[in-house]
Design goal:
The chain has about 120 residues and is mainly alpha-helical. It has a single domain, classed as Monooxygenase (Up-down Bundle). It contains three helices and no strands. Helix 2 (about 40-65) packs antiparallel against helix 3 (about 70-105). The protein is elongated.
Amino acid sequence: MGGQWWIVTTIGFIATLIAVVAFFPQSLRTVKTKKTNGISLSTFIIYTIANSLWVLWGVCHLAYFGASESTILMKDLVVICANTPCAMWSGIILGIKINNMYKYGEDCKKWKGKINLKQNSSLV
């Protein structure tokens, strides 16, 4: 790979930063409001599993190959750093989504005591 490995690693870290920053506003909003009715359960299950597996891969790859070569270390750190916060945030959102589904129903139409009038027209 020569002496230019740091360019590739820098691109990886920039991509990591962008991915984490891009995911943060939605995560923060969901955690603050606890509203998840527009969030797909299956998407967040898959996303949480995928990010968790990437973290596991990075840790296992680092453990197997060790930090003997700086290129391996940096590649694994990019994968671990990119996926750890995304796995955590998507897991938190997934937990909130599942909690809302349990408390308020499949599509979270009931919210803090408010009842969806379309589904419960007998109350009108």
